[in-house]
Design goal:
With about 110 residues, the protein is of the alpha+beta class. It has helices at about 5-10, 60-75, and strands spanning about 15-20, 25-30, 35-40, 80-85, 100-105. Strands 1-2-3-5-4 form a five-stranded antiparallel sheet, with helices on one face. A hairpin with a 3-residue loop joins strand 1 (about 15-20) and strand 2. The longest helix has 16 residues, at about 60-75. The N and C termini lie far apart (about 30 Å). Bound molecules: guanosine-5'-monophosphate (5GP) and zinc ion.
């Protein structure tokens, strides 16, 4: 499959890995928008939130557990941080492998739309 994040997970494209387990991979965003900007992705390819189903949704809860763990490790828990995913063109999704941005390390702008 011609998917950038599948290639990163497979090690075919280098990444700055910060966490990995059986179902989840996390790495630094190549163009960080905040002092901490990590992408947390399921290893199984799902294009976006549109493809989350009762059969595969457990990984999403696990991704939030990983986000909380990484945020704590990176000292973000007290001041706060954001976990966000973009779905489709109107949200600005550019890589069509489901991913969650973990952003923190500064006071983030509050722009919901
Ligand atoms: P999206 O806009 O789809 O929500 O987020 C895609 C993110 O992937 C962007 O923040 C972008 O900087 C990041 N990205 C794109 N290509 C690469 C890459 O090759 N390596 C890494 N580490 N991040 C990437
Ligand atoms: Zn993929």
């Amino acid at each position: 499959m011609d998917c950038l994040f599948c290639k990163i997970i497979a090690g075919e494209i280098p990444s700055a890995k910060v966490y990995e387990d059986e179902t989840v991979y996390a790495f630094k965003d190549i163009a960080p928008m905040a002092p901490v900007h990590i992408l947390i992705v399921p290893k199984a390819h799902l294009a976006s939130v549109n493809e989350i189903t009762p059969e595969n949704s457990a990984v999403v809860a696990h991704i939030f557990e990983v986000a909380a763990k990484l945020a704590a490790e990176m000292g973000l828990a007290e001041d706060g941080y954001r976990v966000v995913t973009n779905c489709g063109a109107h949200a600005g999704q550019t890589v069509f492998h489901l991913h969650f941005h973990l952003l923190g390390g500064k006071k983030l702008k509050v722009e919901m739309c």
